Write the structure tokens for this entry.
Amino acid sequence: MEEVAFTMQLRPGVAVEYPRRHEEIWPELSAVLQQAGIRDYSIFLDEASGKLFAIQKRIPNHTADELPMQEVMQRWWAYMADLMETNPDNSPIVTPLRRVFHQS
């Protein structure tokens, strides 16, 4: 299983709304993430900075790189764009993280 970690940034004042929207994640979005091979996806919030830390676990031969072309993904990004720092296509600005330590 591949693990991918990255950060994103919330806009000020939306720390309550961001998790609320995820509690109501659209079933069709969950299905697309599952179909893309994402088997575990967690997002953590540093409330002091508004920084989000995300970890995805992906199966071998996943298709997660194709998610930006999915219509439901684009709709989700538009829905979340008012809460996050985004690119012109509404996708969140993502900073990939390099693993420096792991113990299992």
Q: What stands out?
A: The chain has one domain: 2-97. The longest strand covers residues 38-46.
